Protein: NADH dehydrogenase [ubiquinone] 1 beta subcomplex subunit 10
Organism: Balaeniceps rex
Amino acid sequence: MPEDRDWEVYKVPPTRTPVSERTTSVPNPVTFFQTVFNYVIDAPVTFVREWIERQQAKNKFYYYHQKFRRVPDLSECLEGDYLCFFEAEAQWRRDRMVDQEIVEIVRERLGACKQREGPNQFQNCAKEMEQLAQVTKAYQDRYGDLGVHGNARTCLMKQKHRMMEERKAQANASQ
């Protein structure tokens, strides 16, 4: 870069931003519409939204902690009470999903223990293996052999038949 600069070619930018001077007395229509929009549309909507948020902050609702009331079992429903049948079926489906998750959690705990213990898994994870065996046996006793289309009625009939077989076995054992 040469020592003597040509100040006309390389102008120094202004140090202060120039103030725009109005040449007309008519207000800018853009600022007028922005102000109208702000007071007519934006301000009421913002007020309502903030009021709703304040109300929701007072009453927090955690949907993932929803507790359903227990409904009567299918065996307790009266004949022809279809609403009771529907509620019992929905309760059975929820119970089945909870039991599936319990089995899955115990299975994951056993897998984590096996991963953690390595070659010593048989002696150090015996408690988890026993717990998994108990949980899967209970799940199989209740829901096994129902298939994909199992429902509360077929599950109830399965439990009834199992109880009848146990009573027969007890009667034969006592004779």
User: Anything to note?
Assistant: The chain has five helices and no strands. The mean pLDDT is 87. The two ends are 117 Å apart (CA to CA).
